[in-house]
Amino acid sequence: MSDELTSELTAELRELAAAGETPPALSGAEIRGRAARRRRHRRTAATAVGASAAAALALVVALNLGGGAADRHPSPAGSPTGTPSVPATPDATVNLSRRVVTVAGRELPVSSGALETPTATGRMTVTAKASTKVMPSEDIVGPGYDLKVSWFIELLAADGRTNYIAALSYDEKAPGVYDRTSGWIGLRMSDAEWLYGQLAVGSVVDIEGTAPTATPELSTTPSAATPELSTTPSAATPAGDAAAPTATGP
User: Fold this and answer.
1) Domain that holds residue 134
2) Residue 165 counted as domain residue
3) Residue 226 falls within a domain, yes or no?
4) Which end of the chain, N or C, is more open, meaning fewer C-beta atoms within 10 Å of its C-beta?
5) Rounded distance, CA 133 to CA 248, Å?
6) Is 173 part of a structural domain of the chain?
């Protein structure tokens, strides 16, 4: 190929390349300015993110060191819903009508207040216990000397009324049969000791029902209306077929 042909071909290729070029929409200065603005935006965003992270970290540290606002202002879910309710099922139930106390599925005979000193009913709580305790006699059976009772359990009602359970040692025939206390609840010695071990301070005792009327005690003395059998022959009974003896003179 000659030099002339080569020069023509080169010139045509240059013209073709020039015709296919697209002039840039922005000048070089404008492109450099836009790039600079983008770099500034990126730096500003990074700075803001870093400041937010630092503030959050500082808040967490302050809460951990100072106990946190959550401790001073508990959420509604963590707030108490009210005072604890009284248990629905008592630890012991005294039925005055049947003269029994039911504890742990076992029934023990009791003697409660006499007609003139009835036992108060209601729910009570055990507040104190003592294996032996000296009580004024008027609190037991009436005026007299102070008495020592065994297996003493003190009871307190919500309205301030007090009562107690103890061994009725001076009349162990009374529990389950008749009522003879001044209002307290008496048990036989062995039953009172067992109950003492079952109930603790804080145990709940329900007292319900009404004491029945006094049960008359059986008497072994013969009734005055009962005739006694006699071995002496009656005067109206004939002596027999034998003739009566005839009186003889001197």
Assistant:
1) 92-208
2) yes
3) no
4) C
5) 87
6) yes
